[in-house]
Design a protein that fits this description.
The protein is an alpha/beta fold. It contains twelve helices and 13 strands. The termini are far apart. The chain binds nicotinamide-adenine-dinucleotide and thymidine-5'-diphosphate. Thymidine-5'-diphosphate binds next to helix 6 and strand 8. Its EC number is 4.2.1.46.
Length: about 350
Amino acid sequence: MKKKIIITGGAGFIGSHVVRRFVKNYPDYSIVNLDKLTYAGNLANLKDIENEPNYKFVKGDIVDIAFINELFAAENPDAVIHLAAESHVDRSITNPLDFVMTNVVGTVNLLNTAREHWKGRYDKTRFYHVSTDEVYGTLGEDGMFTEETAYDPHSPYSASKAGSDHFVRAYQDTYGMDTVISNCSNNYGSFHFPEKLIPLAINNIKQNRPVPVYGKGENIRDWLWVEDHARAIDVIFHNAKSGSTYNIGGHNEWKNIDLIRLLCSILDKKLGRAEGESAKLITFVTDRAGHDLRYAIDATKLKNELGWVPGITFEEGLEKTVDWYLANEEWLNDVTSGHYQQYYSGQYNDR
Ligand code: NAD
Ligand code: TYD
């Protein structure tokens, strides 16, 4: 079946993997990548598919109502896969309003336009909202987040994502629109902007710069290979029942300090350094305000209902990720020049 899909945030980390997957796997679909190209958006992430006949890039802001209306009128999409967001917790602590604007207001703009544009054919259209496990708050030492866990966000980022999730459900329940939500754990892989833990640590170790560990490094995250996430989105988009929610995770919990030590050891080998050399860069810094202790996803529903399981192990994924950053020096240099230098020059003080 031919479909036109607007993918928002397609120039970002996860979005670029989703766009690539849909463009390559579904030659009959038309994929429109709508992205504002903030500091986190980068068309270099999509160089390999930019000339494909079923792909088109449109620069624009989801907060701009008039623009979103015009885009829907011009493209007449059958579906939206919504990834555009401000995505970094530390930046949300410094600048919460940006997160309310893009993550809440931007999402409601898209929903509203879709509601009007798709009136009378909600059964033939779909609004897929990509969200995070951070909406569930924090876990103690035990337990996992399921789709039934109550929302309890703590950071301005997770509060804004929780708000957007509630609006998506409200549009399903109030207007009868077809919506689907997935809540995913921390992703890692290629094209990840080096403000997040794994790419930041790889970059800093490579450059012989301090690797900042917040607090004691005892916080736990559940890491998921980004291409496994893109595959889960594909499976859910095509098979989920209207109004359903799925958690996506890799069953792969790591204490931050253990993960950073592992990266140091991998990079010692790859960079020809003596074992233990890179670990000397580990620097404990002031903890993040409101730092959630532990995230862990129970992805049983996705496995049982739609057959999705992670495709690769963390060892394989981390090795591939480190190799990718070492092989793509130009990409890394480009994204860490200019604004990035300014942002991180007074680093560790904003939390
Ligand atoms: P990212 O920061 O790498 O990319 C976000 C993209 O959105 C960028 O290309 C940016 O230019 C675009 N964007 C931002 N504001 C916009 C606006 N107003 N209008 C149009 N485009 C805009 O983020 P990511 O890590 O790829 O995350 C993608 C989605 O997945 C987000 O919704 C995020 O909340 C969610 N998520 C991310 C993770 C993770 O580990 N990275 C985990 C779970 C969920
Ligand atoms: P991050 O990659 O920002 O993702 P999130 O906050 O959305 O989980 O951070 C992952 C974990 O790593 C989190 O516990 C905070 C910690 N962290 C550090 O210790 N040092 C860093 O420089 C960064 C960016 C994160």
